Automatic annotation (TrEMBL):
This is Essential protein Yae1 N-terminal domain-containing protein. PANTHER family: GEO13458P1, ORAL CANCER OVEREXPRESSED 1. Residues 43-81 form the Essential protein Yae1 N-terminal domain. It comes from Davidia involucrata. Coiled coil: none annotated. The lineage of its organism: Eukaryota, Viridiplantae, Streptophyta, Embryophyta, Tracheophyta. Pfam families: Yae1_N (PF09811). Belongs to the LTO1 family.
Length: 161
């Protein structure tokens, strides 16, 4: 530190003051030169944080909607299985052994659906198999029954009574 004082004592005071003024001036110019980068970084940071919040909210809404739709479809198949099983209990000969077997397989698929584990990779395979078996039973029974999902507001306006 004493070396610095000795070094600066070799120069006149006016030169030292002008060097100090130049460094302050450079700081001002540096700030204005970096203004675009500073605003970009601030904007990125704010946008990223806002995106995290809105992304979580949107993800929650999409997840709830998708979960509801899957639950609704599973409920539809459960209702069909229950009706067919009730008919079988009333009259054992009302359906072929093939329909009874497929209905039992559908029942197993619905029971084994991993409701509490939505990230299970078998979910899509189970739903595909369930839809396929449902179509097979309907075709065998010669019934035009189809799961169309919950009616949307636009569907209600188009239908007339």
């Amino acid at each position: 530190q004493s070396g610095n004082l000795l070094f600066f004592s070799l120069f006149p005071r006016s030169i030292i003051d002008s060097l100090s003024l130049q460094s302050n001036t450079m700081d001002i110019f540096d700030a204005s030169l970096n203004l675009e980068e500073t605003h970009f970084n601030e904007g990125f940071s704010v946008g990223y944080n806002d995106g995290l919040i809105s992304g979580k909210d949107e993800g929650l809404q999409v997840g709830l909607l998708h979960g509801f739709e899957i639950g609704e479809e599973l409920g539809f198949y459960r209702g069909c299985i229950d009706v067919w099983n009730s008919a079988i209990r009333v009259d054992l000969a009302c359906f072929s052994s093939r329909v009874k077997k497929t209905t039992k397989q559908m029942d197993e698929l619905v029971r084994n659906y991993p409701i509490l584990d939505p990230e299970n990779e078998s979910v899509t395979e189970i739903m595909k198999a369930l839809r396929l078996k449902f179509r097979a039973v309907c075709a065998t029974l010669n019934v035009k029954l189809e799961y169309g999902g919950y009616p949307k507001a636009s569907d209600a306006q188009e239908s007339e009574f």
